[in-house]
Amino acid sequence: MSSQILKIHQQLVNKEITCTDLVQEKLELLSQNTHNTVNSLLSDKALKLAAKVDKKIAKGENIGLLEGIPFGIKDVYMVQGTTTTASSNLLKNYKSAYTATAIQKLLDAGAIPLVKENCDSFGHGSSSENTIFGAVKNAVNPELVGGGSSGGSAVNVAKDYTVFSIGGDTGGSIRQPAGYNNIYGLKPTYGRISRYGIMAYASSTDCVGPIAKSVEDIRIVLNVMSGKDLKDQTTYASAEIDADTIKTSEGIKTVGYFKNFIESDAISPEIKADFLSAIEKIKAKGIEVKTLDFFESNTLVSTYYTLAMAETASNLSRLDGTNYGNRIEAENLKETYAVTRSENFSEETKRRIVGGNQVLSQGFSDAIYLKGLALRDAIANNFEDDFKKVDIILSPVTPNTPPKIGDSLKDPHAMYLSDAYTVGFSLGQLPTLTVPQGTETGLQITAAKQNDELVLKFANFLKDTI
Ligand SMILES: NC(=O)C[C@H](N)C(=O)O
C-alpha cells in the first residue's frame, strides 16, 4: 500500500478535505468500533488541534507533512492530561503529569493524537486479552485475537481508524500484532527512540516504534521520533533516513534465515510454505540466500522471560498505591501494599512479578538471573557473527497463526512459546520490521544494530518481490 500520510497531506493542502472532518470521522469510527481498541478518546484535544490546522490552511500557510495527521497511542505512554492506564486496574484513573519524548516530538510536528489504545496490561502478553478493557479483536477475523501487546494500535491502523499508531515492543509487541493484522510494524534499534515517558516493562529491551500501512509512513514517523534524549541515557543520535535511498536495493546482496526456525515442529505448515515461497522469489531476484544456525526456541524464550520478568518485578515495585494508582486501604501499611497489588494486578502480571522476584532473590540470582545475562550476551555475539555473513536476516514473525480469543489464556506457557521468533531480536537490540505477506502473519526483516535504514530498504525490495 502507498503512503497514507502523503495522500492525506495532499488532500489537506489541496483543500479536498478539512482536518476537522477527517478527525471527526476517525473519532466516530473509533467510538463505534466493536474491536475493543479504545481505552480513552482524546476528542477535545484532537478537535482543537484540527481547527488550528484548518485555520492555517485557510490562511494559505504551509503545513508540515505530519501536520493534521491523526494517530493513536498505546496506553502505556504518558501524554500530559490524559489517563494512562497501561490497561490495568491499578492505574485505571491515573493521569499523566508529563508527555513522553517520542509523543512530544510527534505533537511538535503537528500530528493529532486521537486515542489511547488498548493493549496487554503493562505489555504483559501476546494477545491483548490481558486487559481490563476487553479482548482486542483481530481486524481481519474478529474471532481471533488482535495480537499483543500493542493489539489495539495494530487493529486501529488495519481498520483505518488511525493513520498510524505508536506501539511499544519489548519482545515482539509491535511486530507480532502487525503480523496478525497484515500491516507494517517496526521495532527500531534499541536506543534510537527515547523511552522517556513510556511505562517501563523490561527496560533493557523496551522499544518505541510505529505501526502503519506502508514503509514510507514507517520511515516518516521513525525520522520524527528518533534522536538522542538526555532523559534517556541509552539513546543515540541517528541520521535521518532518506526516502530515495531506501528505494534502491544497493547494499543487499545476502539474506540469511535460521534453519531451526523453519524446520521446527512448532511452525504451522502455512507459515512455513509462505516463508519458503518468499525465499524462492528472493533468490530469483539474484540475492544469495544462506541458512544460519541459531539458539533453540526454548532457550530464546526462557532467556527473554527470565530477564523480562526480573525487570518488570523491579519496575512495578513502585506501584503500591502510595504515589500512584488505585490504593486499597487495609489495617496497616504493609497490608495496604499487599491488598492494593494483589487486588489490582492481573493474573498474568502477578505471575511475572512472582517469577521475576524469584529470579532476583538471594540464592537464585546467580543460577538464574546471571545465567540469563550470559545467554543474552551469547545471543548478541551470535548475531554479530551472522551479520559478517549476511546483510539481512529474514524470519516469519510467529510460528503460529493468531489463536482464537480465549485460547491463549488457557496456557501461558504456550503463549510465551508463540514469541519464539521475535524475542531473540529483542535480546540482540536489533532493528526489526514486520512486513505483511497477505496472510495472518508476516515476514520479519532484521539488520545489524543501528542499520534501521537497511531494514526499510529491504522492505521496499520485498514489496516488489513477493
Ligand atoms: N511486551 C511484549 O513485547 C510482548 C511479549 N509477548 C511479552 O509479553 O513480553
Automatic annotation (TrEMBL):
It catalyses: L-glutamyl-tRNA(Gln) + L-glutamine + ATP + H2O = L-glutaminyl-tRNA(Gln) + L-glutamate + ADP + phosphate + H(+). Gene3D superfamilies: Amidase signature (AS) domain. Residues 31-456 form the Amidase domain. InterPro entries: Amidase (IPR000120), Amidase_CS (IPR020556), Amidase_dom (IPR023631), AS_sf (IPR036928), GatA (IPR004412). The active site is at K74 (charge relay system), S149 (charge relay system), S173 (acyl-ester intermediate). One of its GO terms (biological process) is translation. Coiled coil: none annotated. GO terms for molecular function: ATP binding; glutaminyl-tRNA synthase (glutamine-hydrolyzing) activity; transferase activity. One of its GO terms (cellular component) is glutamyl-tRNA(Gln) amidotransferase complex. Keywords: ATP-binding, Ligase, Nucleotide-binding, Protein biosynthesis, Transferase. Its EC number is 6.3.5.7. SUPFAM superfamilies: Amidase signature (AS) enzymes (SSF75304). Heterotrimer of A, B and C subunits. Allows the formation of correctly charged Gln-tRNA(Gln) through the transamidation of misacylated Glu-tRNA(Gln) in organisms which lack glutaminyl-tRNA synthetase. The reaction takes place in the presence of glutamine and ATP through an activated gamma-phospho-Glu-tRNA(Gln). Belongs to the amidase family. GatA subfamily. PANTHER family: GLUTAMYL-TRNA(GLN) AMIDOTRANSFERASE SUBUNIT A, TRANSAMIDASE. This is Glutamyl-tRNA(Gln) amidotransferase subunit A.
